[in-house]
Amino acid sequence: MESEFSLESLLNLTKKDKSGFWKLMYDKVKDSVEYGLDYAVILEFKDQSQESDEMVEVTSFILDRDQFFPFLENYLIFCEGEEEYEMCMEIKKVIEKINSEEDISSGE
Asked: Is the pTM here over 0.85, yes or no?
């Protein structure tokens, strides 16, 4: 589920292909929902530490579970605007899964 991206590749992706960036985020969130994780690591940047050649500094872009639903709602709106209706149906299934898990955890 983990992938390594450079800042340059991220910037190029967002400039050239907004739907590709949305899809990248969606895939990470969907995997996290399927595996029952409380977060999704969207991007992770690894840089050589300036203090030591043996150390690596890691910067991560993470969505917490409470951010999944707002992200999915926004991605759904984006896909509706792009008329990607199959993707809309897939997003709705993930939203339903989150809602059903919340219902179970709240005792309903």
From this structure: no
